[in-house]
Amino acid sequence: MLAKFFHFNYRYILKPILFCFDPEQVHDFFTVVGESLGRSALTRWLTSLFFGYQHPSLEQSILGLKFTNPVGLAAGFDKDARLTAILPAVGFGFEEVGSITGEACQGNPRPRLWRLPKSQSLIVHYGLKNAGAEVLVQKLRDHRFAYPLGISIAKTNSPATVEVTAGIADYLKVYKIFLTAGVGDYFTINISCPNAYGGLPFTDLARLDLLLGEFAKIPKTKPLFIKMPPDLEEEKLAAIILLAEKYKIDGFVCTNLTKDGNGANLQLKEPRPTDKGGVSGKALAPLAEKQLRLIRQKTGNKFILIACGGIFSAEDAYRKIKAGASLVQLVTGLIFEGPQLIGEINRGLVKLLTQDGYQNISEAIGVDYKKEIGQV
C-alpha cells in the first residue's frame, strides 16, 4: 500500500516539479538528502519501513558474496560514495560506487546531464567526476556496509592519461589503493566511459590485453568484472571474451552508455538536445540486452553477468535475469520512477518467480539460454 502511495505521488506530483529543474542540481540535492538520512539509525529504519522489502527467494550467494536481492545501484550515481548508508534501507541489494579514478576529477563542463522524457532516457556527459581514489578510500576504509559494495575503476579524465602506459597506471593505482585498504567486495574495470579524454582506448584489443595483463600481475583476492560498451560488433565482443577468459575475469557488466545517440537501434522519441555524452535508459535497453544474450550464448555459465540498461520494472529485471543476468543494476529507472521502484521490482520478482514455479531467483538465471540448448 505504501509503495502505491509513493508511486502515485512521485509520478504525478514530485516528478513534474523536479523535472522543471536542472537534472544535475536535482541529483546533487537528493545526494545531500540521502547522505543526511543515512547518518541516523532512526532515519535509516524509517526509510526501510517505507521502501524496503526482503524475501528469501531473492537471496543468493555469488562469488562468495551474499546478496539479499538482485537489484543494485549502477556506477555513475553515487560518484563519491555518499549514499552507502541509506541505499540498503531504500531496498538495494548492492551498490557500485564511482567510477573512481587515480586522481580527483572535476568532470566535463556543465551542462553535462540532460533528460529525454518521452524516451525515458538520459544523456550523460559527466566525464568521470569524482574525488579520486586516495580521498575515497579514506572515507570508506573504516565503514561496514550492509550489502556488497562494488568499486568501479576508471582512468582519470585528463590529457595526462591518454597515453596507454599512463592510462594503465591510473587504473592500477585505484585497484591497488582499494585492495591494500581492504575496501570493496568486488571491482569493475570500466573500459567503456564514452565521456573522457581519448575516447575508449581499452576497447582496442591490443591495449585491453596490456591492461588486463597488468591487472593479472596483482594477486586477485576479490571478484573482477569488466564494464562493457554496448556498441561492439559481435567479432570484437568475442575477442574481448577470449581476453577475459585468458586473464580469469569473473564477469561482465552489460552495459555502459551508448554513444550511438542517433542510431536507429535507439529509436529516440525526441531530438537530442546535444551531440555530447552517452545515452542511458529505455533507449539503451535493446542494445544492452542483445549483448547480454550474446555473451550468455557464447560463454554458457563461465561468467557472472550483471545487466544494466533500461530497467524500469520487475518485468524488465526478470527478462534480463532469464536472459542470463545474475544481478541487475539501474539508475535511470530510479530517476524516472522514484525510490519506491526498488521495492516494486523486488516484490514483482517474487510474484514472477512464484508464477513460474521457482523457489529461488537463482533458478531463473539464464533459463532462456537453457531452453535454447535443450536443458529445460
Automatic annotation (TrEMBL):
- Provide one Gene Ontology biological process annotation: 'de novo' pyrimidine nucleobase biosynthetic process
Q: Which pathway does the record list?
A: Pyrimidine metabolism; UMP biosynthesis via de novo pathway; orotate from (S)-dihydroorotate (quinone route): step 1/1
What is the annotated localization of this protein?
A: Membrane
Uppermost EC category: oxidoreductase
**Keyword Membrane found:** yes
The GO terms this record gives for MF are: dihydroorotate dehydrogenase (quinone) activity
Cofactor list: FMN
What keywords does the record list, in alphabetical order? Flavoprotein, FMN, Membrane, Oxidoreductase, Pyrimidine biosynthesis
**EC code:** 1.3.5.2
Q: Which residues form the Dihydroorotate dehydrogenase catalytic domain?
A: 58-353
Cited NCBIfam families:
PRK05286.2-5 (NF003652), pyrD_sub2 (TIGR01036)
What is the protein's known function? Answer: Catalyzes the conversion of dihydroorotate to orotate with quinone as electron acceptor.
Quote the PANTHER family the UniProt record gives: DIHYDROOROTATE DEHYDROGENASE (QUINONE), MITOCHONDRIAL, DIHYDROOROTATE DEHYDROGENASE (QUINONE), MITOCHONDRIAL-RELATED
Family per record = Belongs to the dihydroorotate dehydrogenase family. Type 2 subfamily.
- Which protein, by its recorded name, is this? Dihydroorotate dehydrogenase (quinone)
